[in-house]
Amino acid sequence: MLGRRGSLWFLAVPPYLWLVLLFVVPLGVVAAISLLPGAGRINFNAGWPSLNQYQQVLETPAYLRRLGISVGMAFVIAATATILAYPVAYFLAFRARGRATIFLILLLVPFASSYLLRVMAWKLLLGREGAINWVLTSTGLTHEPAGLLVYSQAAVVITLVYVWVPFAALPIYAALQRVDRSHLEAAADLGAGPWTRFGRITIPMSLPGALATFFMVFIPTVGEYVTPSLVGGTDGIMYGNLIQDFFTRAGNWPLGSAMAVLMLLAVLVLVLLALKLVDLRRVAA
Fold first, then answer.
1. Does domain 53-284 bear CATH number 3.40.50.300?
2. What is the secondary structure of 231-281 as a DSSP string?
3. pLDDT, tens digit, 9 for 90 and up, residues 84-142
4. Fewer CB atoms inside 10 A, N or C side of the chain?
């Protein structure tokens, strides 16, 4: 029979193995491709590793500008999704009581449908002949359909916020579940009102979960390319769309790999800076 130490290794090795095979190795391959000196078809015999691809990206203002725009859009999407998800999670944790499981299931129902179908549904809603424009024109708020609702950065932000809110509520809900109710009761006994208890106890104790939610939405959104392709048009494309084009249409894998590595490094730097500025242990104390 396996001892305690042997059982620990038996349980830990498979996840680490999958992490290495499905995450570390692909990243290593992308990094190796980005160091190829030539453009176009992959040829590992083309010569010594080179930083030519990185130099080309850094010397092209359009690439860097698009990366900055994508980071800004991801920040807005992550912040908005976190803010909108907080009341949902609060309701599930403090108000739903015995019906929390039912509401939680209803919250996850959208994930039973295809991601592409949900995005296409928003494309129809935001279109010139869509439901939103119909309401605007019927109520007299606009005299003609607003063309800025679709094929724009606003359409990408709205769609991705909708996509992320149900998923973003889960970490916040887990954080709120760990809030010690005795702290709230003690504050109430000392005369603190509901808003005081919420601002002085609930928010600080759940803030680590909210920050985790923000990063969970922010990190993958920076490289998003499916949603901008469907509802963003030329004005709403993101950095991930440029990477996709270099891997597919242009067939320039080295340059696309260099752009992907630079995006990963930029996101890591931003996350590390945020974690440096925000001490989660101090916040949760």
1. no
2. IITTTS--HHHHHHHHHTTS--HHHHHHHHHHHHHHHHHHHHHHHHHS-HH
3. 999 999 999 888 878 888 888 888 888 888 888 888 888 888 877 777 777 877 777 77
4. N
